[in-house]
Amino acid sequence: MRVPLSWLREYVDVAETVTPDDVFAALVSVGFEEEELHGFDISGPVVVGQVLSFEEEPQSN
Length: 61
Fold this sequence. Notes:
Helices cover 28% and strands 0% of the residues. The radius of gyration is 20 Å and the shape is elongated. It has a domain of 38 residues. By secondary structure, it is mainly alpha-helical. The longest helix is centred in the middle third of the chain and has 10 residues. It is built from two helices and no strands. 0% of the residues are buried.
């Protein structure tokens, strides 16, 4: 099961200083079986765009 840490924080009291590796280790220590830990390393700025206007294309069929 994939569980984002942000989602887990909505339902469980997880401190902001806790890392995904910490949660992973804690779950394994109480008997949960681990498969993989997927991280999302963002190495640059995140670019967000906004559509200001659009023009519909005429049907070409």
